[in-house]
C-alpha cells in the first residue's frame, strides 16, 4: 500500500490514562466523539469536536503519525501517550 500524503483526524487530549480510558468507554457505548471532545479535551481543537483538519506525514508528533498513517480509517485509537498527555484518536479520511 502506498504511503498516504494527507489525512484528517480528530482527537481528545486529557492528562491521565485513566481519564482517557473512561472517555473511550463513553464513546464506545454510544456517546458522540464530538460531544465528549467539547466537554473534556484539553486541546483547543476540543471546541471543534476534536477536529484537527487536514495534515501530512511528519506534521504531528511521531505517535500520531504512526496511528494516523499506519492504522485504519474510522477506528478509535487510544490511549496514545505523547509529550502532551493521553489522546483518543480517530482518522476520518486519508488519501
Polypeptide structure, described:
The protein has 95 residues and is an alpha+beta fold. It has one domain (7-94): Chitinase A, domain 3 (Roll), CATH 3.10.50.40. The chain is built from three helices and four strands; from the N terminus they run βααβαββ. Strands 2-1-4-3 form a four-stranded antiparallel beta sheet, with helices on both faces.
User: Briefly, what CATH class?
Assistant: Alpha Beta
Inertia-based shape: globular
Q: State the domain count.
A: 1
Terminal residue distance: 11 Å
The fraction of residues assigned to DSSP E strands is 25-35%
> What is the count of helical runs?
3
Counting DSSP E segments of at least 2 residues, the number of strands comes to 4
Brief synopsis:
The chain has 95 residues and is α+β, with helices and mostly antiparallel strands.
Amino acid at each position: 500500500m502506498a504511503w498516504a500524503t494527507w489525512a484528517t483526524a480528530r482527537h481528545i487530549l486529557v492528562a491521565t490514562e485513566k481519564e482517557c480510558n473512561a472517555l473511550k468507554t463513553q464513546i464506545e457505548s454510544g456517546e458522540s466523539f464530538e460531544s465528549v471532545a467539547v466537554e473534556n479535551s484539553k486541546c483547543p481543537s476540543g471546541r471543534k469536536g476534536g477536529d484537527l483538519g487536514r495534515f501530512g506525514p511528519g506534521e504531528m508528533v511521531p505517535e500520531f503519525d504512526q496511528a494516523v498513517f499506519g492504522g485504519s480509517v474510522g477506528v478509535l485509537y487510544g490511549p496514545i501517550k505523547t509529550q502532551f498527555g493521553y489522546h483518543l484518536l480517530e482518522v476520518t479520511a486519508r488519501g
